[in-house]
Design a protein that fits this description.
five-stranded antiparallel beta sheet, alpha+beta, nine-stranded antiparallel beta sheet, 316 residues, 17 strands, 3 helices
């Protein structure tokens, strides 16, 4: 369809907004002439009968003539009935289920869709264990030995508390500012030394606030001499690092918890020379109980300064 530029329709194709002629109207056009013809035949039948009677007035009324007249009437009636039935059938078949006036057909119903699966519940949040997962449970005691590094930061290792002995005299002690105070030292007769192999440093000490690196410590001469320390329990897992030495001596470290718990022991064989060690203790004890630490000289080679030394301890 191509409308002219001036909007006129050329009559050859239906316009864009024209509707095709309905089948009902076409059937009505076909049935009209047929119905009129049947009515004409019905009207002419009596006249033909009267004309026949008039053209043969002298012909006697016989049974044959009456039968012929009846057959003519029957044919006319049957023809009329057949035409009527045909027209009615075509009209019924062509009738479309048009919606009532004023109502527009709605959009077709959407096909049913499969319901979406229920959302999967989010997995529960897992809170990481901040303690050592290999050491759960109640009271605990574990002892290891690690090499002594060339530089040791007491501030980094002792997040809860730390102590250092020596540096400004045999009785001098440095502590962590605002430490927990859970390190216990009964004191005793000690001598100062500067023979350590690690530079000990800190940035949060008292009475010396900052130290870039010292190798000082304290020691005791002779076999049987002992350093005794303790760390208070809190119910949480704690890590203690102990920095000690042996001067031409055989020594033994004992760490224990009260209540019948088996102690942990490490021994150093007798040998000449100065040797230094780092011991790492993991423990857990309830409040009111303490971790006991004993570092003892078992034997010495016989030199004037043979014995055991103590440099530092940290708690985290």
């Amino acid at each position: 369809m191509s409308p002219h530029l001036d909007g006129a329709w050329d009559g050859r194709t239906p316009g864009r907004h024209s509707a095709p002629e309905s089948l009902r109207a076409r059937l009505a056009d076909l049935a009209g002439p047929l119905t009129a013809r049947v009515r004409t035949w019905s009207a002419r039948l009596p006249e033909a009968a009267r004309a026949g009677a008039a053209s043969a007035p002298d012909q006697p009324a016989t049974r044959v003539g009456a039968a012929r007249a009846r057959r003519r009437r029957r044919r006319v009636v049957l023809t009329t009935a057949a035409l009527t039935v045909t027209v009615v059938a075509l009209a019924y078949a062509a009738r479309s289920p048009e919606p009532p006036a004023g109502r527009r057909p709605g959009p077709p119903a959407a096909a049913p869709t499969a319901s979406a699966p229920a959302p999967t519940a989010a997995p529960p949040t897992v809170v990481p264990d901040t303690g050592n997962p290999a050491l759960p449970g109640g009271p605990l005691l574990d002892l290891d030995q690690e090499p002594v590094p060339p530089s040791v930061s007491l501030s980094l290792l002792g997040t809860r508390d730390w102590r250092h002995w020596g540096g400004t005299g045999a009785d001098s002690v440095q502590r962590k500012q605002r430490g927990t105070g859970e390190i216990e030292d009964p004191g005793g007769d000690r001598l100062e030394h500067n023979a350590g192999v690690a530079d000990l440093n800190w940035t949060d000490g008292t009475p010396t606030a900052r130290e870039e690196g010292t190798r000082a410590g304290v020691f005791q001469r002779g076999a049987g001499k002992t350093f005794t320390l303790a760390v208070a329990g809190s119910g949480d897992l704690r890590t203690v690092r102990l920095f000690v030495g042996a001067f031409s001596a055989g020594a033994r470290l004992d760490v224990s918890l009260p209540g019948g718990h088996d102690p942990a022991v490490r021994e150093v064989a007798l040998a000449r020379g100065d040797r230094f060690y780092q011991y790492v203790v993991h423990f857990r004890a309830p409040r009111g109980q303490r971790l006991l630490i004993t570092w003892r000289a078992l034997t010495v080679t016989g030199g004037q300064n043979d014995g055991v030394s103590l440099e530092a301890i940290t708690v985290s």
